[in-house]
Amino acid sequence: MPSPEPKWRQKYWTSDCLQNTCRQHGLNPSGVSKRTFCADAAELSVGHILTALSVVFVISRIMAYRRKLQAVSNVPGFRVPFYPLGVPGFLLPSTWWNPAIHWTWNWRHTVYKQYGNDTISVAPFVIGPASFYSANLDVARQVAGGEHKTSFVKPKKATSVPTYSISLDARLTLIRLWGMNLVTADGNTWRNHRRIMGPAFNPKLYELVWKQTLNTYYVLTFKFALLIIAKCGFGLSFNWDQPPRAGDGTMTVQAALRTVIDNHLLMNFLPKWIQNLPFKKLNETREANDQLMAFMQDQVEQRKADIRSKVLGKETAADAFTMLVEANEDEATKHKLDDVELIGNVFNLLFAGHVSTKVSKKTFTSRSSVLGHDRDPTLEEYNKLDKVLYAFYEALRMVPSGFLMIREAFEDTALHVPNPVGQEGSTTLAVPKGTQVIVDMIGVQYNPRYFDEPEKYKPSRWYGVSNESEAFSAFSIGPRACLGRKFAVTEAVAFLSVLLRDYKVKPIYLPGETKEQWQERVLVANIVLTLGVSNVPIQLIRRTRA
Ligand code: HEM
């Protein structure tokens, strides 16, 4: 009994094969079993099926594409293969045929001009939903303002966001990590969250923000200055994240040095017997001093060992500390400093270098008209620091960290899109349920409708604008505007006022580079959950007291 033909083969028999002939391939029927399989004919059939499938796919895409164009009322915009916030659009590099997530930044100066209005559409012809992108504040008010009667919500659940929408999915998943919250909620749930959260943002909190920002400024600049002097002056392998531990490891070198520096007057001027009294502060200072000495001793030993085992002709490290130890080792024995003297010198250098590099609380700039005294600013003086506020507003306008506000129509609705500048009125567009309207916050901040010469850094444009004003829109507008606005602004003003009091900030130019060219070079978007810029080369120059 011949074994039965497998099913997949039988499927491809042609009627010619069944009649023991194959006109197409000229087979002689004699001797050819009825069950002979005509492989070429079968391949032809697979090809037919694939072609048919492709045709079906293309037709379905064309129909879907037409629906997307209808959804966005044929408003001009991108006709590209992929949705910018989804896979693969998000993963592929941003280029003319794939805007990707970066387009709102990369093309911020040109894109809306190119399409003739500040609301445009995206209709991807391969994959992804139709959406509007708008740099218009009236559109923002309709979709993101959180008005009672809105037909737009933040895209519902992270899980319900289509899987092609990787970035959106990731953003929502991240901000929902700890459950439903004010940022992700909508409707009555949002109102309830806001009612409870709102009172937490009160003057007492801002008082704390102010105080802690100033404290952190000193901790930060101390650590920063220590790091530089330790690395460059002494070749010590200090690490920002994991500072080295002094002595027996119970204290970081940074903490020990801080204590010693803060209390050096006690150690220098009090008689020894008083220093040894069992008071908390004296105990701590003694302990810190011992730990630091043990650390320095260890460092000197290491340097000596390095110098002794130095491979002939190989340079040792060029830091001041190593060179000091090396010079001492070269001295004739009678002139040599002993270890304690060497440490004394090293410590003094470290101490002196650190104190002169660190930002002293007492440093004061003669330029400041507000902080005219030898002290830190207080929160009560906030209003007088308006120039600092305007500088911060302008920087945030140029790099708005909350760069997209994504909304979705939960029912069929309408959108009133203001006509281009110079044309009165607005156009009403029908927006089907499920269509996204994305407020492009970068576009808003660079929109010539709202700002003249938007590409220029001009803090003066904010003169007289109050902290609550909606003219400044980088924190969003309407009832759903950023709850942390005053928190962020208080922190920024406190930090910037002391930083700018103590330091001049100078851009580091390439040879022959202008300020505008520098700005264009360094403003490279760094988009994670929020928008930032990559490394900005600047020089901080300590101000001298007048
Ligand atoms: C420079 C700093 C900040 C900027 C530019 C900023 C910007 C924004 C923007 C644009 C929104 C609206 C998002 C949307 O509707 O999709 C928002 C909402 C929000 N922000 Fe901020 N934000 C900043 C700092 C903060 C801080 C420090 C906090 C908290 C301490 C905070 C808490 C919130 C909350 C809770 C919401 C949701 C408000 C609601 O939906 O009712 N933000 N922020």
Give a quick rundown of the structure.
This protein is of the alpha+beta class and 546 residues long. It contains 19 helices and 14 strands.
How does this structure look, described?
Pfam families: p450 (PF00067). InterPro entries: Cyt_P450, Cyt_P450_CS, Cyt_P450_E_grp-I, Cyt_P450_sf, Cytochrome_P450_monoxygenase. Its main location: membrane. Belongs to the cytochrome P450 family. This protein has 546 residues and is of the alpha+beta class. The protein has three domains: 7-66, no CATH class; 77-200 and 385-481, no CATH class; 205-357, no CATH class. 43% of the residues lie in helices and 10% in strands. It contains 19 helices and 14 strands. The chain has helices at residues 7-10, 15-18, 39-71, 103-106, 111-115, 137-144, 166-175, 187-197, 203-234, 253-262, 264-269, 272-275, 280-308, 320-330, 339-357, 386-398, 441-445, 485-502, 515-522, and strands at residues 77-78, 119-122, 131-134, 152-153, 245-246, 251-252, 404-409, 413-418, 426-431, 436-440, 503-507, 525-527, 531-533, 538-542. The strands form five sheets. The chain has a six-stranded mixed sheet. Strand 8 and strand 9 form a beta hairpin. Helix 9 packs across helix 15 (339-357), helix 9 (203-234) packs across helix 18 and helix 10 packs across helix 13. The structure holds protoporphyrin IX containing FE (HEM). Residues 144, 182-183, 194, 396, 400-402, 405, 474-476, 480, 482-484, 487-488 line the site of protoporphyrin IX containing FE.
